Every structure is written in C-alpha cells, then in structure tokens.
Amino acid sequence: MKILFLGDIVGSAGRKVVKENLPELIKQYKPDFVIANAENAAGGYGLTEKVAEELFSYGIDLLTTGNHVWKKEFIPYLQKTERVVRPANYGPGAPGKGWSVITKGNLKLAVINLEGRIFMRPLENPFIVGKNLAESLKKETPYIIVDFHAEATSEKMALGYFLDGSVSAVLGTHTHVQTSDERILANGTAYITDVGMCGSQESIIGMKISQAFELYITLVGRRLEVETSPPYKLEGVYLELQEDGKAKEIKRLRIIA
Asked: Which are the contacts of 17, defined by CB distance < 8 A and separation ≥ 6?
C-alpha cells in the first residue's frame, strides 16, 4: 500500500500549494490513499464544511485534525462525516470520531487521530487510547496510520516506540516544523516527529511574521493572521507498507513553489 500524508494545511496559502502540487505528487507516487492534517485550513484556525469539501476535490481522501477542530459551525459536519477525524482521546460525548476506516477496492486503511497532553489539554491518555484502538482496528485491517497531534517531541517519540509493531506509522503533526528523523522502528512502524506544514514559507508556522513579533514582544495575546505571500511550501511524507502492515519505506517530502 502507498500513502501520501500532508502536513498541517494553513489557510488559503496552504490550500493553494496543495491544489497546485498534489496532482503531480499523485502522478509521481501513485498513492492508494492521500491523507492531510487540516485543522488550520480555514483562515489558519479550524475547519469548515466548505473548506473540507474543497480539499477533498483536490484528491485528498481523509482529513485529520487536532485541538483547533472545534469551530462551532463545523460541529454538525464533523458529526455526520466519516472523512474527517478529530483526536480520539477527547472525553465521552465529544462530537465526531477519533478514527476512520477508508476503503478503495480491496484495500482498507485505518486512520487514528490522537492529541498529546504535554503543554496541551489534560485529555485521556493517548498511549492507552491509541493502543486499544490499534488492537481493535487490527481485526479489520493491518494498515493503521496514527496522526499524533502533539507539542512535545519527547511525547511524540515515546508514542512511536510504544506503538511500534502495533501500527504501520506514527506521524507527528501540530508544530508545523518538519523534522529530519524519519525512520522505520525496530518492529516495523514508520515514524517521524513532525511531517511539517503546507503554507507560506516566509512566515511563523504559517502566520504573519510581524504579528508574531508583536505577540512575543508585548506578551499581549492576539489572533494571528495567515501569511498568504509566496513562496509556498508543501511538506509531508510518502509511505509504502507491506502486506502485513509493516512499513517498507518512509520518505520526507518538501516542495518550495
């Protein structure tokens, strides 16, 4: 099985670079499935039904999210769709689902979304939730991808080792900075601490540089706006999985356009 996973899509700049470059990536890698994290795809914060459908029209099969998914206007769509998942370790009764199984022909891919707890919310334990979900979903398919939306690199690495052999890949998102530690762990799980982002290259994780300066110098909280100027970058990973679900290859992707 071949999979393309795109890093956090940030606002209109992120959508633009995905729209313009994903067709060529699909042509080059011929993936069975395309997944992307889209928790910041609408205005740099959250997601809307319109933006989700726009991203699907580009050839993306499923969207993962994170702590910014909870836009009030998006909740009804999140509750009815199987193509957008939110972190599975939120409490009982949280809208939407934390995992999904997508199918093409005879191929089935399970995708689990988890959120970290270090420097973030005190959610349910992502290690226990992830392990239990992996064991359950393995009855349906050997191909299981985890998007771990977390702040701390140590927590991401720990989950990678903890789930090694239980899932096909643990892919970090949330920090928007691509790391160079992609590898296949001892028991066959592909791992990278952060896949990166899709958006403006000359920005602070996709947002306007001058506004980030203001925030850090004055220490007064403010809503940051998406940087929309070129050049743009598209970051993510290409995965190739064996028939038993173990990873055969993980390759970092980075396009500056």
From this structure: 198, 199, 232, 233, 234, 255, 257
The SS3 call for residue 220 is: coil
- Residue 85 belongs to a domain with what CATH number? 3.60.21.10
Distance CA 5, CA 223 (A): 28
Q: Write the burial class of residue 28 (CB in 10 Å: 0-12 exposed, 13-18 middle, 19+ buried).
A: exposed
Q: What tokens does 241 get?
A: 């999985």
Which residues, at least 6 apart from 151, have a Cβ–Cβ distance to it below 8 Å? 116, 118, 119, 120, 174, 175
Cβ within 8 Å of residue 82, ≥6 positions away: 97, 100, 102
> Hey, which residues are catalytic here?
68
Contact predicate 173/156, CB 8 Å? no
Burial call 125-156: b when 16+ CB within 10 Å, e when fewer = ebbebbbebbeebeeebbbbbbbbbbbbeebb
d(CA 229, CA 13): 7
* Residue 35 CB neighbours (<10 A): 24
Tell me the average confidence (pLDDT) per consecutive run of 10 residues in the chain, 257 residues long. 98 98 98 98 95 98 97 96 97 96 97 98 97 97 98 98 98 98 98 98 96 93 92 98 98 97
Distance, CA of 2 to CA of 243 (rounded, Å)? 11
What distance in Å separates the CA atoms of residue 238 and residue 250, rounded to the nearest whole number? 6
Total number of domains in the chain: 1
- Domain containing 229 equals 2-256
